[in-house]
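=== RUN LOG ===
request id: a7f3
mode: sequence -> structure
chains: 1
length: 170
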Amino acid sequence: MVTGLHLHLGSGSTRPGTDAYLFERKRSGENDYHFIERIAAPATSCVDHTLAAAENATYRLRAVSDSSESAGYGVVEIAIEPVVLGNSATEQPAILLYPNPVQQRRVTVRFNEALTGTLELLRTDGKPVMVTQLDHLSETVLERPPLPAGSYLLRVISRDNVSIKKLLSE
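=== RESULT ===
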C-alpha cells in the first residue's frame, strides 16, 4: 500500500509572482479533477496520501496570485506499480561468524537452524576461495586457506534461500 505520493514541482517550473500552487488529481476512470491541496509559494511540493498501489492518476497544477492565475495547467500522468521489498514469510537463516574479524585460519559458522546446502567463502569480486557442503548442520568450523587481509563474503546456499555475511581477515 502506498502511504503517500510526493509531488514536487521542479525548480525550473516555478513562476515569479506566484502566491500559491493548486494541485488537482483525476484518478483513472474519473472524468473530473479533484482538488488536493493549495501550496503557498515558495513551497513547491505536496503529498497525496489517498492514491493506492497499482492505481493510475493524472495530476495538474496551476499557479495563482491575488491578481491572476496561470492560463494553463502543468499536467503529469503517474502509474503506481507495487514493489515487493521483502517477504516476511520466507525468513533467511541467521548466520553467526566468529571470530570476525579473523586472525587465524579457523572460523566458526553457526546457523539458527540446521541447514543442508553449500557454504562458499568468496573474494569480493565473487571468485570462490573455498567451497564446502552442509549436510543438516547447525554449526561448522572452516579451516580456511591463508588469506590476505581484507573483506570476504560467506555465502550460504540452501534449498530455499541464499544468505551472505561479510568476513574480515586481518
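=== NOTES ===
The two ends are 45 Å apart (CA to CA).
The chain has a mean pLDDT of 79.
=== END ===
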